[in-house]
Amino acid sequence: FAWRTAGERGWVVAGWQIPADLFARRQTMEAQYRSYQEQGMYWKFMRYTYVGMLALITLFILFVATWSALFLSKQIVIPIERLVRATGQVSLGHLDYRVETGAIDELGLLVRSFNQMAEQLEHSREELDARRRFTEAILEAIPTGVISLAADGEILRVNPALGRIFPPERAAPARWLSDLFAGEDLAQIRRLIRRAQRTGLATASLDLQVDGQVKHLALTVSALGPDEPPAADAAP
């Protein structure tokens, strides 16, 4: 403030003294603010880093899961496809076909079981072929006529000796009993077949007229099994 007296004038200045530690506290606050900004930038950087790492880990896990799924699917799908292909080959009669695959666990056991089954079927077929050839050789050699029949009376096989009872041009193309026998003769043979199916064996004599000649035949009908067709022997 100012005052004035007679002949004199003066000024009085009053001021507020700043505390000595205020400047130091200001510097401290500025330093803390800069530290806060630096920490904020650091946390933002860390957040981006962690998000990137999580993304990379997720991609890696997805890659491993996809690769594992493809690998396991190959371990399952490929053996199954080869088993399906092998089943088709076996159904076509190619019993020497084998499944070659590196399957493991239950699928490997299934593949080995299939190969063993195919091998057993091949051996069984070879045995059946050998028995068939042996039976054909016997049928070719015996002097009596033999007719192999299905359950419905269809002729499955005849031997050459039947050509001495019937003309060869009549015996060879015969497909049913009615092609060789007729009338009461056919009825008698059918009765013998039914008796053989019950008892296993039936015999009878038959006077058969063929091309104007009467032939005296001794018939023997035998059932080969409960599910197998009968066979008839005719000896003149």
Structure, explained:
With 236 residues, the chain is an alpha+beta fold. Helix content is 54%, strand content 20%. It contains 4 helices and 7 strands, in the order ββααββααβββ. The chain has helices spanning 22-91, 105-141, 168-171, 183-199, and strands at 2-5, 8-11, 145-149, 155-158, 201-210, 213-225, 228-235. The protein has a 5-stranded antiparallel beta sheet with strand order 4-3-7-6-5, covered by helices on one side. Helix 1 (22-91) packs parallel to helix 2.
List the helices and strands and how they pair.
Elements: E1 2-5, E2 8-11, H1 22-91, H2 105-141, E3 145-149, E4 155-158, H3 168-171, H4 183-199, E5 201-210, E6 213-225, E7 228-235
Antiparallel strand pairs: 1-2, 3-4, 3-7, 5-6, 6-7
Helix content: 40-55%
Q: Please count the helical segments.
A: 4
Tell me the span between the first and last alpha carbons: 167 Å
Return the string of H and E elements. Answer: EEHHEEHHEEE
| Number of separate strands | 7
Q: Using only CA atoms, what is the Rg?
A: 53 Å
Strand order of the largest sheet: 4-3-7-6-5
Task: Give the helix/strand class.
Answer: alpha+beta
Strand content: 15-25%
Q: Given the C-alpha coordinates, what overall shape results? A: rod-shaped
Provide mean pLDDT, rounded.
76
Largest beta-sheet details: 5 strands, antiparallel
Q: pLDDT below 50 for ≥5 consecutive residues: which ranges? A: none
